[in-house]
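Re-running the complex after MR caught last week's input typo. The corrected sequence lines follow. Everything else is unchanged.
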Amino acid sequence: MEINIKRENTTQSFNIERASTLLEALYSIKTKQDSTLTFDSGCKSGICGCCSVLVNGKEKLACTHKLEDNDTIEPLRHYKVKKDLLVDKSAQLSLIKQTNAALANYKQELLTTKDENLTKIQTDCILCSSCYSACPVIDVNSNFLGPFALTRAYRYTADKREENPKDIIDSIQTNGVWDCTLCGECTLACPMGIDPKGDIVQLRNQSAKFGYMDPNFSNIGFGDGFGFNGGF
Amino acid sequence: MSNLDLLIIGSGISGLSAAISAKEEGADVLVVTKSVPTKNNSVMAQGGINAALGNIKSDSTKLHAKDTLKSSHDLANANMVELLCNEAINAIEFLEKIGVSFSRIDNACSTKGSIAQRKLGGASAPRACYAQDYTGLKIMHTLLDFAISSNIEIKDGLFLLELIKNSCSEVCGGLFFNFNSGKLESIYAKRVLLATGGYGGIYAKNTNSYGSSGDGLAAVFRAGGVLSNMEFVQFHPTTLKGSNILISESARGEGGYLVNCKNERFVDELAPRDVVAKAVFEQISSGNSVYLDLRHIDEQHLKEAMPQELKVIKTYANVDATKELVEIEPAVHYSMGGISVNSNFAVKSLAGCFAVGECSDASVHGANRLGGNSLLEAVAFGRLSAKKALSVAPNAIEQKEQKYNLPVGSGNYNELSNTKKEVAEILNKNVGLLRDEQSLKEAQDSLNRLNIDTLSVSGQLQYNTNLIELLELKNSIYLAKATIKCALERKESRGAHIRVDYTSEDATYTKPSFITIKEL
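Corrected-run output:
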């Protein structure tokens, strides 16, 4: 079978034997055809999030993706490409930092299975950045906090053990929850079945409880672009 | 001049637990990792973290210590085990306070708490606190969030080449290859704590993440520090046949059976891992394939308790484990041995240097580790080791230009790749679950014949993953040789070290093995 790999500004085709996963195919190319091929990999079992790439334009983990003939492999979007399929994901930490995603004000609570379920899926995040790569908002606003950071923020606001999530809510107003278009690309891209879009909607509701409103709405409501002002 | 109180090398659960603890003490701390912060074996831990909370059934730290000591085959240190089991309660409290989303039980007793616990092999009570079968992942990422919010700096892409010593031979930093710049980088600190993980990845068949090459152990070894109990390499009984992807002990904890191709059960599934792995290996050696059988367990319960396992079994074996048998085989999983440390986590014969987690041998696992005790060691001893390290007087920092000859030349990757494969296969074949004098000596000879000094890599240094592979291979060979030497000298069978030519335990060997580079 043949696969195509985007390297720098060219796309190179490789003829390979059938491999069970894309990651195996990448290693096979590296050992048999081109030892300079550069990519990341770790756990081989879909839990470390290192080997995320684009396959035919969609985010996949190389270690779980079953190859098909003529698949085209590219590096993730929205990160600086280090080399070939390897990208610089160090921005992940600063995005998390900006959202204050952590349990800051612990309150003792006897949690139940129902409480556990409130954050069960969100805490499955493996930081593969598939959602971040898939997010179209980042194309127009590179400062957007993006889906995984917001999901991580949401999970602490939804945790009963957090006494006051105000810091988190305050930090996700600018370039945060209101900048999302709710297109759902992040949800489709997540290999763990997390729904960042849904979490962002929840964060909007929580923001409202803290007195924030949709700035887009307030612009429409009180700006004069639509001629609402001065009519009364 | 560096003001770093503590340089932590490794960003897994041990490293981050230590960093958070150091920060609480007001220390200036830096964490460095050779790859990215969440690429480690910590995220792969599934089954749980032991603490005698007694949330399900009555339990005590004494019982926990007793089980741990028994499983260690008298090689663990009773005081260290007691410390670990007592600290377990604090460790869970810490994880609860930073928001780890443990699985819960309803109608819990308010004086105890609602964290769900399951029974793992060798435990006399349901003791492993878990978060479905994503326990390591959820602990790791919660620690990461907390570390970031605590303003702990984490630098990626720094591969440890050598430890730097001052004129008093105390460790005062590390010399790194910076993968992101392609340059050498020295980082100085008043104390260095290694949390670099184990060396299970040097075996051909293993459950570890790529890069589990024991870099910290090798650096300590070269710097004159002592390694101990290197022959005790744990085989996990249940990994998917072929791919060796881990199927956690929780599968048996939830009631799973092990059956052979005649549909016979052949071992107590919840015996310690050394016992179960050996039984599985013997079945396979006698021509019987072995399967994990989960079919009798309620499907809904399986989906709830073990979502990851069902997913990986489906992805990598194309089997629906709720309805079909899953073929398994043992594979290397964990290194009990490591950098020999005292009760303050200080490395023996290497002043100023500390080690914690799987890279260390803190005398708590001995000849066989219990499931649920490695995450515990990482969190509890991670936290404690930072406090202990900070409590000793700082080392003098003497900065000077560090030289290192990186293996760069006209290198041929195939040669590197083939050598790596050869070493891994020698270990599997000759230093595997069963070993004897002849197989070990053969392995020793084969490794001595390898000429790794001629191996090199070519191309630019920045982002050169092949260079990292070669540096890891060089480290692997030190550890392979140390493992073989210790295995040869222990002329008995004990826990995970099973000698075909000395089949029983021998009281004269009821002591740890130690090795330094001079004895290699």
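None of the earlier attempt is carried over here. Chain B has a mean pLDDT of 96. Residues 465-489 of chain B form the longest helix (25 residues).
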